[in-house]
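To: structure subgroup
Subject: Chain for Friday's discussion

All,

I'm putting the inputs and outputs inline so they're searchable in the archive.
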Amino acid sequence: MTGGHDAVILAAGGSLRLGRPKQLLTVGGETLMARASRIVAATGPGKTVAVLGAHAERMCGKLAGAMAVFNPDWATGLASSLRAAADALAGRTDPVLVVVIDQLALDEAHLWRLLAAHDGSRDTVTAYGEAMGVPAVVRAATLMRAVALEGDIGFRALWQDTPPQTVRAEAFAEDLDTEADLARAVSAGRIDRDRGAM
């Protein structure tokens, strides 16, 4: 599949373990929010939804054409953001490219690999180590099923009964959740030091 898709950018989290909005950390002067929006936009989605929550007022100018959807329940966990995305894309039938903003390995090439591999028979997800997750291309029906999820639960709960196909990319195992993660990313030059000062 190349084209004919919508997109969701999940960016509602409060970065509680990090202690600062990870959405506003920068790479080469570009915020992670703006970076994810730009990379997603390059794949030409029909409609892009950015689900915002914590610090939402500081994100809206960085969305590269994405429609901002505010999730008032962001503190309850990931499921509430998936429900907000499903509501925003209700009635649409194209597959949905789903990304989060804090994966430093995110790039256009990997998103195109996912889109090219997706044949519509099942979801297409990124595999790394023993895990699998986003970035992913999910069927519209999968996104609609997410409205039944609660708490800090994502698509993996839905993939138990319908295993997805995978595109392996070990770089996506890297997290950016804690001060230690941030320190490693800054030391490696993957996050700007001025925004990630230790």
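Points worth raising on Friday:
The chain has one domain: 6-187.
The first helix runs from residue 32 to 41.

D.
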